[in-house]
Automatic annotation (TrEMBL):
One of its GO terms (molecular function) is ligase activity. Residues 114-297 form the ATP-grasp domain. Keywords: ATP-binding, Ligase, Nucleotide-binding. Coiled coil: none annotated. SUPFAM superfamilies: Glutathione synthetase ATP-binding domain-like. InterPro entries: ATP-dep_AA_Ligase, ATP-grasp, LAL_C2. This is ATP-grasp domain-containing protein. Pfam families: ATP-grasp_4, LAL_C2.
Length: 401
């Protein structure tokens, strides 16, 4: 019986979900100080341990081990992007179930991911680690343009550079910081695949179509249930998860549908961000985060998911999100017409992401620069996308003089 749960926090505050499943559960949360504000239900925790972001993994392990000596822990969970490598190290040290450090390393480090998939014969996209400007020049000479330069580990569409012509190469060379990956640009529609695994069995649950700005920052999504027409993508994603050693939990895999077939961009051992789990839940009734929590508590949830997927007449709609982006650089004064936008047909809500006084930057550097979003629900992807876009357009971002 799991009586004491170690929650590695900072992205999704799942303490209420844990308590709903097990009211008697004792929860210890460990979190990096910059993400402490994300722990919104600290009162449900037995203890909250916050560490400076510079703390080593060894320090995280030592503190977890000390708590374990005082009150033995029975499970480890990390449901967001941050600190999963620390959760893996703690679980390995305490002999608790979690993804192995090797699996998390392959997921976090896109260079290791590319090497693994190439070795397994799954994806041969040319890619290489970049430590110097000469490395980038050599790759461009060997594989040609266009290419993509991005961090080896990162999220939120941060610091991604596309080099399409030789004239753009000098600017890219100046941005090489010693910890990046260069890969051939993949041409095609980008989608993400929301999946759930248990015992090495993978179920493809949702397909998300992405909308990005010129700087690769995501400004919208529309999600729907996976169908039989998605089987080529589903088969490819299952092979990726097998090769990387991911055997349980939710995954969010981003890929490009090229003329040669699907090719991976990156994958994550978590449910998607940008409200995708909430949209999928609203559209299909499947809650990936709740399933992940139940699984981390020792429940076998694949039969539950399979029963939902096979249910006759199961609701299958489409959910969408559209972001309002800064109209110009400056300081935010306010966002007008939020209530009117939220009341538009098909819209399920509008949420502000910036407080008055926040600096806005154009062009956007990453997803943290977005101002607000509106979500919608409809019977088809086109209607859902249109409703969310119209609502976002109704929002008026007012900048300080």
């Amino acid at each position: 019986m799991i009586r004491h749960f170690l929650l590695i926090g900072g992205a999704r505050d799942v303490a209420p979900v844990l308590r709903d499943r097990r009211p008697e559960l004792r929860i210890t949360t460990m979190v990096a100080v910059p993400r402490l504000h994300r722990i919104r239900h600290s009162g449900l925790c037995t203890r909250v341990i916050a560490l400076d972001d510079s703390a080593t993994t060894a320090e995280w392990v030592a503190l977890a081990r000390r708590v374990h000596e005082l009150e033995p822990m029975h499970a480890v969970g990390a449901f967001g992007e941050y600190d999963q490598h620390r959760a893996a190290a703690i679980a390995a040290a305490l002999g608790l179930p979690f993804h192995t450090p090797e699996v998390i390393a392959r997921v976090y480090d896109k260079t290791l991911m590319r090497q693994r998939l190439r070795a397994c014969g799954i994806d041969d996209t040319p890619a290489a680690a970049v430590e110097t400007a000469q490395d980038l020049e050599h790759f461009a000479d060997e594989h040609g343009l266009p290419l993509i330069l991005k961090p080896r580990s990162g999220s939120g569409s941060e610091r991604i550079v596309r080099v399409s012509t030789a004239a753009e190469l000098p600017a890219a060379l100046s941005q090489v910081d010693g910890d990046q990956l260069v890969e051939r640009y993949l041409d095609g529609d980008e989608v993400s695949v929301e999946a759930f695994s248990e015992g090495g069995v993978h179920r493809i649950v949702g397909i998300t179509r992405k909308l990005k700005d010129a700087g690769f920052v995501e400004i919208g999504h529309v999600i729907r249930a996976a169908t039989a027409t998605d089987e080529p993508v589903a088969r490819y994603v299952r092979s990726v998860l097998d090769a990387l050693g991911i055997s349980y939990g939710p995954t969010h895999t981003e890929l490009i549908r090229t003329v040669a077939g699907p090719r991976i961009v990156e994958t994550h051992t978590r449910a998607g961000g940008d409200q995708l789990p909430q949209l999928l839940h609203a559209a299909t009734g499947i809650d990936l985060v709740e399933l992940a929590v139940r699984q981390s508590l020792g429940e076998q949830v694949l039969p539950v998911l399979d029963a939902m997927l096979a249910e006759p007449g199961r609701a299958s709609r489409a959910g969408a999100i559209r972001y309002q982006v800064p109209p110009a650089s400056g300081r935010l004064l306010r966002v007008d017409h939020v209530d009117e936008a939220a009341a538009m047909a098909g819209v399920t809500g509008c949420t502000l992401l910036k407080e008055p006084g926040a600096p806005l930057v154009v062009p956007m550097r990453d997803s943290d620069d977005r101002v607000a979003y509106c979500t919608s629900l409809a019977d088809d992807v086109e209607s859902a996308a249109a409703a969310a876009e119209l609502a976002a357009q109704r929002l008026e971002v007012v900048l300080a003089p």
